Each structure stands twice: as C-alpha cells, then as structure tokens.
Amino acid sequence: MDPKRGTGPNKQSPASKPGTLPESDPIFKVVGARVRITTTLPNHTLEATLFAACSVTNLLALREGPPPSGPASPPSTFHVVPLSQVAGWKILSPPPQEAEPELPRLGMEAFRAREEKAVREAQRKEANRGRGVSAEAQEVFDHFEKTLPTRWDGPNIIVNDSIRVEPPYTVESLRVPKNKQGQMMQIKKVLEGFWTKKKSQQGQAGGRTVPATPVPPRKGG
Questions:
Q1: By three-state DSSP, how is residue 1 classified?
Q2: Is it the case that residue 217 has pLDDT exceeding 80?
Q3: Which of 33, 41, 157, 208 has the fewest CB atoms nearer than 10 Å to its CB?
Q4: Where does the AD domain lie (predicted)?
Q5: Residue 26 and residue 45 in contact, taking contact as beta carbons nearer than 8 Å
Q6: Hey, how many other C-beta atoms are within 10 angstroms of the C-beta on 153?
Q7: What's the rounded mean pLDDT across residues 157-162?
Q8: Are residues 199 and 157 in the same domain?
Q9: Same domain? 43 vs 115
C-alpha cells in the first residue's frame, strides 16, 4: 500500500482528481468490504458493502443489507455512485475470504437513471431543510410540502409561491396578499390540521401544549 495515499481501515482516501481514480487505487482492491463513502453532497454519507468498482465507467456500486443466501432472501438495495461525487472513503470492515459474486450485467442507462434520481432526491431534501429553524418549524414545512408547493424564505415558509407563514407558524402568522385571498381557507385548513394533529399527539404523550387557533366570537352574543 502506498503510504502517501494514506488508505486503510481507519483512514480517508480522497479521489486523485475529479471523476477518476487510478486503477492502482486501493478501493478497487477491497470489493466486498464494508465501507463508508463520503459524497460531495452536503452531509451525505453511505455505509454499505462495496459490490463493484469500475475504473472504465468511473462508477461504484454499493449494496445495503446482507448478501443473498438463497432464492428466498429479501432483495438488496443498491446505490450507484459516480467517482466524481466521491469526496472520500473509509473501510469499516474488510472483505470476506470468499469472493463476491460478479456484478450482473445491467444497462448503463438504467444505472445512470437510478443515480440521477438518487441525486435529485438528495438535493430536494437538502433544499427543503430549513436553516436555523426549530424542529417544529420543519414539521410545519414538511406538512405543507406533502400537498402544496412550499419553500423557505429565511425563517418564513412560502406556500403556493405567495402565502407567507411566519413564526410561530400559527393561523395568526399567515400573511396573504390581497389578490390571493381565495387561497386563504385552503392554507388555513392545512395549518389547522397540522396543529390539531400535533396537539393530539402531544396530549397522548403528556407533552407541552402547542399554540392553539383561537375561535372567533359568535355574532349576536
């Protein structure tokens, strides 16, 4: 092992240049090992078995779960990671003595489509994560995002690209433009539904009381 590379069970191995690794790189010699791959996506790592490493296509194939032991074994989950997105890697446990089965012949288009889908999903999750907001604020955001176009604007949640939900994210915190008043009832109903469910869950768990939506006084006394 080249000491300048600094690779081994407890050391990180960065890619030599974007998108490629030399065929002499140790990662091509540890197929079957359990590894931790750090990608170039923010705060994104994968821990899985290195199923295959190809210096021609510049792709790594990672398998989650135990190796199949027979026809009744549950299907494995595979991840395909381009070397261009590998920031570093570390061996968690060495490969077994017996050789891993050969990588099945799969179309490269299917590989790339799956990889692109995984990247898009990771980017979507990262974009939907609030910066400097509470866990409760993130829950409100996720509740809206299930059914409506939703994005962050600092600590504020923007729904339908026009309606602003400001801290503490109650119905009183809604800011609706005059030309969007028709959407008010829909947004209000979604927000009230979140707090009703939240209050019920915390009541069952003996948690703290959440902000309640005040009921307006009835007309006529």
A1: coil
A2: no
A3: 208
A4: 104-199
A5: no
A6: 10
A7: 92
A8: yes
A9: yes
